[in-house]
Design goal:
CATH topology of the largest domain in chain A: Rossmann fold
CATH architecture of the largest domain in chain A: 3-Layer(aba) Sandwich
Oligomer: heterodimer
Strand content of chain B: under 5%
Helix content of chain A: 25-40%
Number of strands of chain A: 12
Structural class of chain A: alpha/beta
Strand content of chain A: 15-25%
Order of helices and strands of chain A: EEEHEEHEHHHHEHEHEEHHEEH
Structural class of chain B: mainly alpha
CATH superfamily of the largest domain in chain A: P-loop containing nucleotide triphosphate hydrolases
CATH class of the largest domain in chain A: Alpha Beta
Number of helices of chain A: 11
Order of helices and strands of chain B: HHHHHHHEEHHHHH
Bound molecules: adenosine-5'-triphosphate, iron/sulfur cluster, magnesium ion
Shape of chain A: globular
Largest sheet of chain B: 2 strands, antiparallel
Distance between the termini of chain A: 35 Å
Strand order of the largest sheet of chain A: 6-7-8-3-9-10-12-11
Helix content of chain B: over 70%
CATH topology of the domain at 95-275 in chain B: MetI-like fold
Largest interface: A-B, 32 and 28 residues
Number of strands of chain B: 2
CATH superfamily of the domain at 95-275 in chain B: MetI-like
Chain lengths: 328, 328
């Protein structure tokens, strides 16, 4: 099998606080293949953004990667010296931020922000950088890009600004794009368009995407595989179609129950009772055990590691442990 | 843009009119101008004649209109104390004050911004902590104490710099006499400039530091980092410009207070400027000079305010948007 584009192994991210160290990401592992779209879902605070920040090396101190490793095409990038990591950011891994209203520098034109980024990473002159910037803006769907490029961010609407942000994330031709809730801050009417643009342009360029979202509907339509995070741990990962058709982890099943689909009307929304534990109060054993309908003794004592279920699927739940199956 | 300028100018005129009213009322409420002008031996009839001749018996509004009319022509009457036209007196003293204010203003801005940026970027370093501690002292020590301390150390003990006066001055044009072109003049301005600028510098430094830290937390800075821009580009290209937008306003206004505060510094260093002139006028209840000084300070504040607004406008493209075309 070919080497994965991105490989995250046993990633641990910790935040030292006055009342002890918080473990925001606890031994998370997953891979991304070249050109693949991986959806990442989970409740608020599950650790989706922190995972993205850890990959790109931008965890804010005093937070730090306390264990595990991140590899890009086999090369470790979690311990690179700052200047070499800087050349990975933007150039090899692009990031799309959540809120387009705040992620563009208000004092510089779109042209300046784009050409600056292009010329930081690629050896081209100003004219060529501008030509590429215009072509890219045109590609992400900015009308009259050649003229609009000299406008300031505030001249654009929210949806248009997010297109600019996507152009900025892609302008140095990265192999991987991490999009952290790229549509949450946008008007519902433009959300689908933005996701489409992002998906298409990444597909054209062969860039893989890690798409962080709350929206299972978006995942179902966009992603090849989906990873479900719960309290900083990976609950389940697998091909989208399989996971949606038959979620194996009880938490995922609960989540899937909560997306209305064409065949399921919204009055059948299943709510998982209770809420995700805070980082300083994660129960021993399986983090999900207080809310799980299938909980049994072992869940309260031992933490389940992801168990291979075949066809690229992994589930971190004791129900799927062979030892348990024998008991049944 | 034009409407904005017209509105600001109208506001400025209103402010000036109010200050004129205050200055004018000095004549009526602070001492009796007649007794200040004539000797003890003048008769009641003489006094009454002079009163009539000066128009002091006219209705209030007529007198006020006359005062404003004269002021517009630069005529503030004759100094009671020096028996010279007030305008001449002030103009002859103004270069000393403006040179001192300008030098200390420029130094305060340059050092304030540099130190502010340094302490913001090296927040945890011990040099930064040292600078911050010293700056606290700078803010809390009264100006005259700083002046006296400087004189004691650099003029009396070390004998490096002169302790008073302006040194040798040479004329530029008709009435501007400068000390900046002579060695002794330049040496003389150092201590007063430090005294006058220290407080403003600490203020600017603390403001720049706070603003910069704020800006460094914004999404657009995080996004700039995530695009792999160099620290230099992020700090000095993106963060500094955004930091300086609000700082310009405050700093510009500081220049007005520097001129106003120069009263104390000029007194301590026997600097022959308008501040020292004003203090002497107060001692002698030389109302015409006091009134003219008030008007002059107000005018300087108003003009600076106007310039700062326009500058702000030039720096921040968001303010340049014509209404209605902001979004599409
Ligand atoms: N600077 C920090 N200090 C301490 N804890 C932090 C810090 N930043 C994040 N955390 C914690 O890390 C956990 C994961 O946060 P993260 O932002 O990754 O959540 P998320 O899954 O992206 O949620 P959301 O859907 O709300 O964006 C949260 O519990 C949060 O409280
Ligand atoms: S391990 Fe136990 S508690 Fe955890 S999800 Fe599986 S069944 Fe539920
Ligand atoms: Mg998040």
């Amino acid at each position: 099998m070919a080497e994965p584009l991105l490989s995250v192994r046993d990633l641990v991210v910790e935040f030292p606080t006055r009342r002890g160290t918080l473990r925001a990401i606890d031994r998370v592992s997953f891979d991304l293949k070249e050109g693949e779209v991986l959806g990442m879902v989970g409740e608020s605070g599950a650790g989706k953004s922190i995972t993205g920040a850890a990959i790109i090396g931008l965890i804010e101190p005093p937070g730090r990667i306390a264990g595990g490793e991140v590899r890009l095409r086999g090369e470790r990038i979690d311990n690179l010296p700052p200047d070499r990591m800087r050349r990975v950011r933007g150039r090899r891994i692009g990031k799309v931020f959540q809120d387009p209203l705040t992620s563009l520098n208000p004092l510089y034109t779109v042209a300046r922000q784009l050409t600056e980024t292009i010329r930081t990473h690629l050896d081209v002159n100003e004219k060529e950088a501008r030509r590429r910037a215009i072509a890219l803006l045109d590609r992400v769907g900015i009308p009259a890009a050649a003229r609009r490029i000299d406008d300031y961010p505030h001249h654009f609407s929210g949806g248009m600004r997010q297109r600019v942000v996507i152009a900025l994330a892609l302008c140095a031709e990265p192999e991987l794009v991490i999009a952290d809730e790229p549509t949450t801050a946008l008007d519902v009417s433009v959300q689908a368009q933005i996701i489409d643009v992002l998906k298409e342009i990444c597909a054209e360029r062969g860039a893989a995407v890690m798409l962080i979202t709350h929206d299972m509907g978006v995942i179902a339509e966009t992603a090849d595989r989906v990873a479900v995070l719960y309290a900083g741990r990976l609950a389940e990962i697998g091909p989208v179609r399989d996971v949606i058709k038959e979620a194996e982890h009880p938490y995922t099943a609960g989540l899937m129950g909560s997306i209305p689909t064409l065949t399921q009307t919204s009055d059948r929304l299943v709510q998982i009772p209770g809420s995700m534990p805070r980082l300083n109060a994660i129960p021993t054993g399986c983090a999900f055990n207080p809310r799980c309908t299938k909980v049994f003794d072992r869940c309260r004592v031992e933490r389940p590691d992801p168990i291979d279920r075949g066809s690229g699927r992994q589930v971190a739940c004791w129900l799927y442990d062979r030892a348990e199956a024998r008991h049944d | 843009m034009l409407a904005f300028i017209i509105r600001r100018i109208a506001q400025s005129l209103l402010v000036m009119l109010v200050v004129a009213a205050v200055s004018f009322s000095l004549f009526r409420f602070v001492g009796d101008p007649i007794s200040s002008m004539v000797g003890q031996e003048a008769t009641m009839a003489d006094r009454e004649a002079l009163r009539e001749a000066l128009g002091l018996n006219d209705p209030f509004l007529v007198q006020f209109a006359r005062f404003v009319g004269n002021a517009l022509q630069g005529n503030f009457g004759i100094s009671y104390r020096l028996q010279q036209p007030v305008m001449e007196l002030i103009l002859s003293r103004l270069p000393a004050t403006l040179e001192l204010a300008l030098i200390s203003g420029i130094a305060a801005f340059a050092f304030g911004v540099t130190l502010g940026v340094y302490t913001a970027l090296n927040r945890r370093g011990w040099i930064s902590s040292g600078i911050m501690t010293v700056s606290l002292i700078g803010v809390s020590l009264p100006t005259f104490l700083i002046g006296v301390l400087l004189i004691w150390v650099f003029a009396v003990e070390l004998q490096w710099l002169p302790s008073f006066g302006r040194g040798e001055v040479v004329g530029i044009g008709d009435w501007w006499r400068t000390g900046l072109l002579t060695e002794s003049g330049r040496r003389s301005i150092i201590l007063p400039a430090i005294t006058l600028g220290l407080y403003q510098m600490t203020l600017i430094m603390r403001l720049v530091r706070a603003e910069m830290l704020e800006v460094l937390r914004t999404d657009y800075i995080k996004f700039a980092r995530a695009r792999g821009l160099s620290n230099r580009a992020v700090h000095f290209g993106h963060a500094l410009k955004n930091t300086l937008v609000p700082v310009i306003t405050i700093t510009g206004l500081q220049l007005g207070s520097i001129i106003a505060f120069s009263i104390i510094t000029e007194t301590v260093f026997q600097w022959p400027g308008v501040g020292a002139l004003f203090i002497r006028s107060v001692q002698f209840v030389d109302v015409p000079v006091m009134a003219a000084y008030l008007m002059m300070i107000a005018l300087i504040f108003v003009v600076i305010n106007l310039i700062v607004d326009l500058l702000y406008y030039a720096v921040d493209p968001r303010l340049r948007v014509e209404r209605g075309s902001a979004r599409h």
